[in-house]
Write a structure and sequence with these properties.
This protein has two domains: about 5-180, Flavin prenyltransferase-like (Rossmann fold, 3-Layer(aba) Sandwich), CATH 3.40.50; about 190-395, Rossmann fold (3-Layer(aba) Sandwich), CATH 3.40.50. The protein is about 35% helix and about 25% strand. By secondary structure, it is α/β, with parallel strands linked by helices. The two termini are about 20 Å apart. Bound molecules: cytidine-5'-triphosphate.
Length: about 400
């Protein structure tokens, strides 16, 4: 399963570093190529000799080899890897990864990595429970990094709680699951829309909505991680993606999203409309800024084109079309109506009555409905985790 897979392992200064040589051994036995980077502090816990012997490659710590001046290129390693895992991830390294502080070879390589990144925290329970650690973990998850949750048990300090690094055998299983899922969308073109649209009123004002785009970006990352070629049509957001299989097209208004979407739709195997497209747009955009003394009493609106309905009408039988429904009442009935009226294969329902669901939050609670009236309920999860559930459901349809 892991034959020829290139795995980059980062080891940081935590007592759990003693477990990582076993992980390296397991990966090598499965046929993976393993390159290890140790932080300076990690070398106090495991020796570079142990690591290089097990991995068949030099164990790296510094950007330059001080004896012969050769460069250990973080950029090349970032491109080389199919997967990066930081195990154990200490509180200090989590903080550096979350803030982008690039002061060692491990973090510069992390910043250069184009592959999925897993991290397995290991630290004492009070450090793990500290709000700053929690915020760093959340930031990393929200950027698409995958948390390998620490286990509850006796810690090196003698205290009992969450903070033990996951066992090497379990980490191996997570890596294998990742690669087997990874193949499922190879060769598929996936079109995803994300974020809000802005409808201009005049040169300085617009009608918009609170969509952050995180759900759509998480879907794009997840689909790309499983081998798909993704076209991401994005409304205005603060998000970015560096995945080499994602082509991002930036749009602003509903009309621009319509034009970009219909152009990409023909060659798309799977289309996911997660954007919060405006249903109405100002009838006229004022050429100049509307002044207070103009005393405008109302803005006349006209409907936008419903992109999803248009796609539903054009869709060929082999194309899969997925819509979103954000509802505040009669949620399931409204979602079923949208599923049928727009000729969808699946609809993802968020109810604003569920705490932590919907716009502008990093979590979501969804229900997925299919054409055969099946309903699938999911727990409140981070949006990248929700993306895994949605892509899993879509993959079942292929
Ligand atoms: N959608 C679209 N084009 C629009 C409006 C919505 O493609 N002009 C898509 C959204 O991306 C989403 C789905 O339609 O996948 C449902 O959007 P939603 O706003 O919940 O539903 P509407 O059909 O617009 O109905 P209503 O606003 O009345 O609930």
């Amino acid at each position: 399963m892991l034959q020829g897979k290139k795995v980059l392992i980062g080891i940081t200064g935590s007592i759990a570093a003693y477990k990582t040589p076993l992980l390296i051994r397991l990966l090598i036995k499965e046929g993976a190529e393993v390159q290890v980077i140790l932080t300076e502090n990690a070398r106090d816990f495991v020796t570079p000799l142990t690591i290089s012997t097990l991995s068949n490659r030099p164990a790296l710590t510094y950007p330059f080899n001080k004896t012969d001046g050769t460069w250990n290129s973080h950029v090349e390693m970032g491109i080389w890897a199919d997967l990066m895992i930081v195990a154990p991830a200490s509180a200090a390294t989590l903080s550096k990864m979350a803030s982008g502080m690039a002061d060692n070879l491990l973090v510069t390589t992390y910043l250069s990595a184009k592959c999925p990144v897993f991290f397995a925290p290991a630290m004492d329970l009070d450090m793990f429970n500290h709000p700053s650690t929690g915020e760093n973990v959340e930031r990393l998850i929200n950027r698409g990094n995958k948390l390998i949750e620490p286990q509850v048990g006796e810690l090196a300090s003698g205290l009992i709680g969450a903070g033990r690094m996951e066992e090497p055998e379990s980490i191996l299983k997570i890596i294998k699951d990742h690669f087997s899922r990874n193949l499922s969308l190879t060769g598929k073109n996936i079109l995803i829309t994300a974020g809000p649209t802005y409808e201009s009123i005049d040169p300085v004002r617009f009608i918009g909505n609170f969509s952050s785009g995180l759900m759509g970006y998480s879907l794009a990352e997840e689909a790309a991680n499983r081998g798909a070629t993704v076209t991401l049509i994005s409304g205005p957001t603060h998000l970015s993606t560096k995945h080499s299989s994602i082509t991002k097209i930036d749009i602003v208004s509903a009309t621009e999203m319509y034009n970009a979407t219909i152009e990409a739709f023909n060659s798309s195997d799977i289309t996911i409309m997660s954007a919060a497209v405006a249903d109405f747009t100002p009838d006229k955009i004022a050429k100049e800024k509307i002044k207070k003394q103009d005393n405008p009493k109302m803005i006349r609106l006209k409907p936008t084109l419903d992109i999803l309905s248009w796609l539903g009408k054009q869709k060929k039988p082999e194309q899969i079309l997925v819509g979103f429904a954000l509802e505040t009442q009669n949620e399931v009935d409204n979602a079923i109506k949208k599923l049928n009226n727009k000729n969808l294969d699946l609809i993802v329902l968020n109810s604003l009555r569920d705490k932590g669901a919907g716009f502008g939050v990093s979590t979501n609670k969804i229900k997925i409905l299919d054409k055969n009236q099946n309903q699938f309920d999911f727990e409140l999860k981070t949006k990248p985790e929700v993306a895994v559930d949605i892509i899993d459901k879509i993959t079942e349809l292929i």
